[in-house]
Design goal:
Layout: H1 9-30, H2 39-52, E1 56-57, E2 69-73, E3 76-78, E4 92-101, E5 104-113, H3 119-136, H4 145-157, E6 162-163, E7 169-171, E8 178-182, E9 199-202, E10 205-207, E11 213-215, E12 222-224, E13 230-232, E14 235-240, E15 243-246, H5 251-257, H6 270-273
Antiparallel strand pairs: 1-4, 2-4, 3-12, 4-5, 6-10, 7-8, 7-9, 9-14, 10-13, 11-12, 14-15
Helix pairs in contact: 1-2, 1-5, 3-4
């Protein structure tokens, strides 16, 4: 993890461009996530879409990762490699996407339902997504890394879920991974202090059962240790005028799925809304 890089207003707008390419890619993918489709097919669609929008896939070749999307179904937490196995009714799948444009990265993720999922799994997704915004709310001038992690951990564990420790969010900018690390657990008042112009990716990873994980022999895929489902949601966020402002959005996903939501309103500036 490199050092913390404070961004200018102009750099934040360039980052927003990259983040929105990812947002639009996930929106396009949302309409295609259905039983019978393979993750390799979705990966190919995403790569074409990103390149057609003047960017390059941020993950392809990064640390030698072989694809444009991390595709992690069911008990896979993150970093799943796309393959030819068709998605099935009742699956969930975390799709993590990155794009590089104008020398800045966008990087965020959403966990999709494949057809109808069980009420227990649906609740896991809802709580994990809500925990993302609980954490974002604490990303403001004067607070510290531990304030975000504590808020996410407390909210998540109050619902009886496991918070992954080994994988964390991160700073974002000209590099995919900058400082600071952004754990989804922690203690209030601890860690790096947040400053105007900081940009991070906040990404809770929540397991239905144990917080413990294991890794496949492919060197990438992370699974829950007990085989229970895991959910993952991620946004890119900047501190603007002392407060958190979203650079990414789930609105394209919601448009594709026919979902109405005002969850992002408090983190979106009036200029962006217009």
């Amino acid at each position: 993890m490199s050092t913390i890089k404070i961004k200018t207003a102009e750099e934040i707008e360039l980052m927003r461009e990259s983040a929105l390419i990812v947002s639009k890619t996930l929106g396009m993918i949302a309409a295609e996530v259905k039983p019978g489709v393979t993750t390799l097919q979705l990966d190919a669609m995403a790569e074409t879409f990103i390149r057609d929008h003047g960017a390059v896939p941020g993950f392809l070749g990064l640390y030698d990762f072989p694809n444009s999307l991390c595709m992690s179904p069911n008990a896979q937490v993150v970093h799943g490699i796309p393959n030819n196995t068709p998605l099935k009714e009742g699956d969930i799948i975390s799709i993590d996407c990155g794009a590089l444009k104008n020398e800045f990265y966008g990087d965020h993720a959403y966990t999709f339902e494949v057809g109808e999922v069980s009420p227990e799994v649906k609740k896991l997704l809802e709580v994990t997504k809500k925990s993302l915004y609980v954490g974002i709310r604490e990303f403001k001038v004067g607070n510290r890394v531990g304030d975000v992690g504590y808020a996410i951990q407390k909210f998540t564990e109050n619902h009886g879920y496991g918070v992954v420790r080994e994988l964390v969010g991160h700073g974002l900018g000209r590099k995919m991974h900058e400082g600071p690390e952004m754990p989804n657990y922690g203690r209030r008042g601890r860690g790096k202090k947040f400053l105007e112009g900081m940009t991070v990716a906040i990404e809770p990873m929540t397991n239905m059962g144990t917080k413990n994980i294991k890794q496949l022999k492919d060197g990438w895929t992370i699974l829950t240790a007990d085989g229970q489902p895991s959910a993952h949601f991620e946004h890119d966020v900047a501190i603007v005028n002392g407060k958190p402002e979203l650079l990414s959005t789930f609105k394209y996903i919601y448009e594709a799925l026919g979902i109405e939501s005002d969850e992002e309103d408090e983190f979106t500036s009036s200029i962006v809304k217009s």
